[in-house]
């Protein structure tokens, strides 16, 4: 009976929604011919004040309504970040439920990116 319980725990345990990706790896991935989809899930005002170049703004509270905009990315790398990580984790869990298979969470999120003095873009 114990092996059966172990198998149930293994297959029923929650799966982490995202794998970590560090800023240096993200910078390298952005140089590829097919860079990952980079989702900034902060508010539009936060995004306009500054964001990672190449990021697409999709506020965490708008994900359900705007999920159609992500059609076609289900099997591609998607990197998610917010200010400190809480909103990104919520979005990552929702993406996983929608069938996204390559979800990554930017370690340090926006605050870490800025602190490391990586490139930043503001609204034009």
In short:
This protein has 124 residues and is of the alpha/beta class.
Structural topology:
Layout: H1 2-12, E1 19-21, H2 23-30, E2 37-40, H3 44-49, E3 56-57, H4 63-66, E4 78-81, H5 86-97, E5 103-106, H6 109-115
Parallel strand pairs: 1-5, 2-3, 2-4, 4-5
How would you describe what is shown here?
The chain is α/β, with parallel strands linked by helices. Helices cover 39% and strands 14% of the residues. It contains 6 helices and 5 strands; from the N terminus they run H-E-H-E-H-E-H-E-H-E-H. The chain has helices spanning 2-12, 23-30, 44-49, 63-66, 86-97, 109-115; strands at residues 19-21, 37-40, 56-57, 78-81, 103-106. The chain has a 5-stranded parallel β-sheet with strand order 1-5-4-2-3. Helix 5 links the parallel strand 4 and strand 5. It is globular, with a radius of gyration of 16 Å. It starts with a helix and ends in a 9-residue tail after the last helix. The model is unreliable at 4-15 (pLDDT under 50).
Keywords:
alpha/beta, 14% strand, 5-stranded parallel sheet, 124 residues
What's the story with the biggest beta sheet? 5 strands, parallel
Q: Give the N-terminus to C-terminus distance in angstroms.
A: 63 Å
Name the helicity range: 25-40%
Oligomer: single chain
User: How many β strands by DSSP?
Assistant: 5
What's the tally of helices? Answer: 6
Side by side, the strands of the main sheet go 1-5-4-2-3
Radius of gyration: 16 Å
Structural class: alpha/beta
Report the sheet-strand fraction. Answer: 5-15%
Shape: globular
How confident overall, as mean pLDDT?
Answer: 89
Low-pLDDT ranges: 4-15
- Helix and strand succession? HEHEHEHEHEH
């Amino acid at each position: 009976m114990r092996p059966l319980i172990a198998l149930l725990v293994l297959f029923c345990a929650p799966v982490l929604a995202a794998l970590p990706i560090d800023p240096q790896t993200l910078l390298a991935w952005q140089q590829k011919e097919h860079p990952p989809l980079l989702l900034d899930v902060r508010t539009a005002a936060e995004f306009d004040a500054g964001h990672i170049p190449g990021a697409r703004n999709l506020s965490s509270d708008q994900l359900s309504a705007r999920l159609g905009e992500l059609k076609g990315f289900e099997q591609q790398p998607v990197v998610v970040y917010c200010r400190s990580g809480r909103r990104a984790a919520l979005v990552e869990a929702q993406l996983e439920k929608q069938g996204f298979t390559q979800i990554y969470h930017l370690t340090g999120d926006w605050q870490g990116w800025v602190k490391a003095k990586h490139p930043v873009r503001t609204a034009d």
